[in-house]
Q: What sequence folds into this?
């Protein structure tokens, strides 16, 4: 067949319901594509690999604090159990539900970006941010309570509540096991680890919320509605990691051996 005829046949416009065997997939030009990556998929995979590598370092970082907590809890068991009874399970459980909800909306946000639904993406990012702020608000209430009770590690730390616990009006018995003065001093170590672990987690939340505001601003401009979803996907990994860390912190700090006298 004549080459001119072949060229004419291949260049004929397609009907809306037809697809070309030469271009089976839709190609979307992404202006964010960097020149040092051969393809957009390669850039996306490199970004995901970098995020997973970062999360691996975070696991090692938090893993060190988890190991220190378990080690000292084994050494000073009575002091750690008594100190953990001072934490509010209702507030901790509420924060757990809030953080799980925020992770759910973040997952929906990733889905909305992938299916290019700009309005839903903005909505889910806003909900994720609001739940994150609610988590930090409840955590500040907990910190305020520790401040009022002088349970902040340091010179003003008060062990009197652990040496002479309050008496239950109904039973006439101590609400928790009294500790010897030297053992009561070890409760300060529990609260040091409590503030270190939950404080570092809260710092990750604050950083994440800052990034959420930035992503929300870009989402409103439509930057993630034309095939460029890597920032949303990678941040979703970060946010879910923060959720998982709390799911370990909550039972470890709040629930283990809760109120053994009861």
A:
């Amino acid at each position: 067949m004549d080459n001119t005829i072949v060229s004419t046949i291949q260049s004929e416009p397609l009907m809306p319901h037809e697809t070309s065997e030469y271009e089976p997939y839709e190609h979307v030009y992404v202006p964010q594509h960097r020149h040092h990556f051969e393809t957009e998929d390669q850039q996306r995979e490199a970004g995901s690999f970098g995020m997973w590598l970062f999360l691996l370092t975070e696991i090692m970082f938090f893993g060190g604090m988890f190991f220190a907590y378990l080690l000292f809890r084994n050494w000073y068991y009575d002091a750690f159990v008594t100190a953990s009874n001072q934490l509010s399970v209702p507030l901790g459980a509420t924060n757990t539900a809030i953080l799980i909800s925020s992770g759910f909306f973040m997952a929906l946000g990733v889905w909305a970006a992938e299916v290019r639904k700009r309005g839903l993406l903005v909505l889910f990012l806003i909900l994720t941010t609001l739940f994150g702020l609610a988590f930090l608000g409840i955590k500040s209430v907990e910190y305020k309570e520790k401040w009022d009770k002088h349970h902040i590690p340091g010179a003003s730390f008060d062990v009197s509540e652990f040496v002479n616990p309050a008496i239950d009006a109904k039973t006439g018995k101590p609400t928790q096991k009294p500790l010897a003065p030297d053992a009561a001093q070890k409760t300060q170590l529990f609260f040091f680890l409590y503030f270190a672990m939950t404080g570092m987690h809260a710092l990750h939340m604050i950083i994440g919320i800052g990034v959420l505001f930035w992503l929300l601003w870009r989402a409103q401009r439509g930057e993630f509605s034309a095939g460029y979803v890597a920032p949303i996907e990678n941040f979703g990994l970060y946010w879910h990691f923060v959720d998982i860390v709390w799911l370990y912190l909550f039972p470890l700090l709040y629930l283990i051996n809760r109120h053994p006298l009861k």
About this structure: Confidence is low (pLDDT under 50) at residues 1-29.
